[in-house]
Give the backbone structure.
Amino acid sequence: MNPTPLPPARLAMMTLGLGLGTFLVSLDFAVANVAIPNVSGDLGVSPSQGTWAITSFTAANAIALPLTGWLARRFGEVRLFVAAGLMFTLFSLLCGLAPNLAILVLMRILQGMVSGPMLPLSQALLLRHFPPHLKGMAMAVVSMTVTIAPLMGPIVGGAITDNWSWPWIFYINLPLGLLAAALVWTALHDRETDRSALPIDIAGVALLVLWVTALQVLLDKGQELDWFASPLGLGLGIVALLSLAVFVIWELGDRHPVVDLTLYRDRNFFIGAMATSLPWAFLFAGLVVFPLWLQTNMGYTPTWAGVATGSFGLFIMLLTPIVGRTLGRLNLKYLLSLSFFLLWLGTYMASRMNTDATIWDAALPRLVQGAGLGLFFVPLLTIALSNMPPQRLAAATGVFYFTRTLAGSVGVSLGITVWDRREILHHARLTELFGTDTLTRLWELGGDRLAAAAPAQYALAERLIARQANILGANDLFYAASWLLPLFLLLVWLAKPPFIAGGGR
């Protein structure tokens, strides 16, 4: 830990730079989602191929996250953050200039890999330089940016794509990325962390790339492949499972592992990571399913669907700084109990939606969930890092966010699968309930004039059934999630105080 406190002006400069860098990286997870039809059309590929511009970034970022600890020890936290920010800016430019899909996917992979360390490093640097009584605010800065940025992504991406063109979703990173790197370097260039020439765990890196890539491809294409019913899906699952098992064995036995899996042996870190990641899997699935439902079932445009989804962010922006400022005076277990109650209530409200819902009906459950999330991330991250000494903060935050990112990917894939299959089930049940006998009997009684309208009547009936099945499938997903969420609260009550992030020795 640095012996002298950072002057207020430099502390503010560092906070702005780290927060801005984290915001840009988090925004890029979702900003391209609504632009895929435009990207695919301009580059002459199908929309399913265009989604690789999203999945390639996610997979590469997930691989780089747990490598943060090793990279930080090798190159220093300040140099690594600044270099990552500059390279992220460069690859953002090259993404916008990409002439075809292959180049775009390659640039997105590189963009995701170099940006991976930025999120955990920002958390580690803030905790390292904030005074003890303000560490809660340091937690709040990152928690708020990584939560709000993905919610703003669809709105920003939709507005840019509608008013300019899709390359500008990458070009906006250029001035802001350079500014973030400049601010951090100006504030911390003389505050570099200790470095050590650690050997490269080549086998560990290779195994990490193999199992994460196989799992990500399986999650992205599982619904299309019918999961393990197809040879490719089964093969990807086997590769992911076997390479993960070998990876764990290798890393636990290596003297200089590229990913420090021993972090999970710490009780509070394990509880904090699991109590964050498992609920986030369900919540993130809802964040994807909800705007899809609004667009496919309710006729919303991408921009308005993003606005309704973005109502999440209101209470997150209001509550997260308050929680961070008062963290030392709060009982985190009681605070998290309230958080989980609000998350349960909002998710349960979402499960009661119907096709007559207004935009207010759609936004209200998100507002309640947003209030829960405003009380959620800072306390759980504080619990996770409470036993971590300063020299392990970068590694711990990297593994923490890796766990959450991976859980989010699994949650989205499984959530969409559950939604799709429940929709099919409800469609079949509604068809049986409605049947064709009613229409057939009416047509028989109505004679030729009504019989001539039969195709149109069948089409109308099918649209109504499909619409109802769609919302019932989404309701089933939210209902199941609402009753699973409280179970994860039990983990929180097993954590052992005191809870001071970075307070370990």
